[in-house]
Amino acid sequence: MLNTLDEASAAKFANAGAVSMSKCQGLLEFSNGLLERCSTFFDPVMLAQLDAALAHEFAQRDRTRVDDATEAVEAALREGRNAASLAHLSQCAATAKSVATKSMSQAALATEVLRALGGEISAAGFDPESVGQISGAVLHDVIGSLEQNKNALAAAQAYAQALFVAQQRLSQAHLGTPKEKVGRGIAHQIALARHESPFRGRQLCELSEVLVREMPYCMRAFSQGQISEYKAGIVARETAFLSLEHRQRVDSSICGDLDGVGLLGNRELAAAARKAAYALDPKAFVKRQEKAVGERYVSLRPAADGMTFLSALIPLKQGVRILATLTKIADGLKAAGDERGKGQVMADALMHRLIHHAQCNDGAGTPSDHLGVPEGGLPFTDGQQGQESKLQEGQLREDRQLGGIPYSGSRSGLAEDQQCTTVDQASISLELVMTDRTLFGSDNEPAILVGYDPIPAPIARDMVLGRGFSPRVWLKRLFTHPRTNQLLAMDSHGRLFPEGMKEFLRLQDQRCQTPYCDAPIREYDHIKAYAAGGVTSLDNGQGLCSDCNRAKESPGWFSERIECSESTERSERAGGSQDSDGVEHTGDSDPPEVAEGGPPRICVNTPTGHRYISTAPPLPGY
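RESULT FIELD:
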């Protein structure tokens, strides 16, 4: 009897697994079909028809204004109005004619675009019948329905992620992986599948685990498309410090009402979850905020047009005070007639205070440590009386333009003070890669600031030649292959990469070589493991962040270096594709065909048999 029950249970469980995989296969086929339909949904001809119809509508309206203005001038002449009135009406008519001429030109251009796309054109300059059939109400419904379905697909993706994590953990356990290492590298596979960085992949992994296992009501609202993945993440984040029981109570109270939670905005949802969490466990809520103070940091990210984003995560009180101070400075200068925008003044004031102001020990070592100059300036030391008048007028003007007030006392006096010191030019190493032609002005090819984006040649030359600041410049010659532009190789018989080779790899790879990972390089890894016979050479080396290097050691992961694929066409025939980040990904098991030349490429193979190919950034001169 017992054997019969065991067989029945086994059959039942096997059938459940088969049903689950059947659902996965069905969802995969549905996703592929939906992807195909979405890719062919947009018709540029219909958009051109609408643009042409709008342009001709404006042209017709402007022609009507011309007729009205001309009629007004003729009526004024018949009535014998004075010269001033006639001059005003004539000016209005001339302006209307100028506007109408421009509108007619734009309408004609819109018609030409429509004709170039092969659209139907009538005497009106477009196809009124086609335009009349386009319904705004239907398009609005499509947008709303797609948003709801997009959320539901993201929920199915979260379910799949939770199943994938469980299956991969079991697979690693079967392979004999130590218990404390089970789970390593799984989030990286999800990140690769979703074309995200490993850090973001880990966040998505953790979110799906919480939603699927601990928050059924939130997951139901997510699955029915009422909330997005971002909103589901808000509820999970605001309840992270609660016990399972309390988290589920918050989940039930907020997400139990499907229609209600769907109407909440992001801030409203966060406030509701925060309020409910505080009511259930106020001590844990306060403790979490106290812990968050220790997580403050400052980061710098590249932005477009040679700019950067300087971000700071700081306590609320200090953040409000900083913003209030910068706002007060900006308002004062704007009231005094400063022509800069308010945002420009605030940014300049922030730069001035961080670069030019001296440090002091007021509040040192606490979140209130402002490291600024005491109110009223610093006291003079012996022999310094009157030195303020020796400050150059240019420096005074610069300080005022940057929203600050020069402090009393000389910089030498500040250096001697036991409590305050000056902030000198920071000794920072910037690795700038540029060709000799760019350096000496015969070429304008952009240079590479390692770790950031390419920068224009004139700015790179200014950095090297000291225009704008006074750096110490060390020049190193990097020899590249004349045809492939790859850095020439070095070799070492040691297991660890020597410092010279580390610098070489850092300049070559610039960022972590894992696809979609933009983290800075922290470790230097053998592409073919040293234990498996891999040599310590540049051809077998790559720069990785610490997290990706640990994930690579999990069972089933391995990497191989290739030169480059022959062409995009061949890659497409092999079943691969390439995204905007230059990362090729494919499900094939055979290595891609390659041709000589091009920057170094690394093929990352995951435990599920998927391959992702990343290419090192090209160096100047390529």
